[in-house]
Amino acid sequence: MTDLYLILAVFLLINLLAALWRIARGPTPADRLLAALLFGTMGVAVLLLLAYAGGGQTLVDVALVFALLAVITGAAFVRRVWGRESNGHS
């Protein structure tokens, strides 16, 4: 079963490359936001898979911290980009 967890973790890491490409290319801030949130979610998933594959409780704790940071990052991004647009600035 640990082999399955490791295979899934590698698959998610490959998908992170697609998220990085979307963050770099855009074309809109919304695309970048969704890719960044996807990046955070996949990072949490990879850490949890590695924890269950034998990494221990420490990786679960790090995954929880990353989940909280992803929420804060998303909220800050939305406030910065869409707050600026609602005030008439570009």
Can you give a write-up of this model?
This protein is mainly alpha-helical. The chain has one domain (about 1-85). About 90% of the residues lie in helices and about 0% in strands. Helix 1 packs antiparallel against helix 2 (about 30-55) and helix 2 (about 30-55) runs antiparallel to helix 3. The chain starts with a helix and ends with a helix.
Find the count of extended strands (DSSP E, 2+ residues): 0
Q: Main β-sheet: number of strands, strand sense, barrel status?
A: none
Distance between the termini: 51 Å
What overall form do the CA principal axes indicate? elongated
Percent of sequence in beta strands? under 5%
Give the uncertain stretches in residue-range form.
Answer: none
Structural class: mainly alpha
Helix amount: over 70%
Strand and helix map with partners:
Blueprint: H1 2-25, H2 29-55, H3 57-86
Short description:
With 90 residues, this protein is mainly alpha-helical. Helix content is 90%, strand content 0%.
From the structure above, extract its key features.
90 residues; mainly alpha
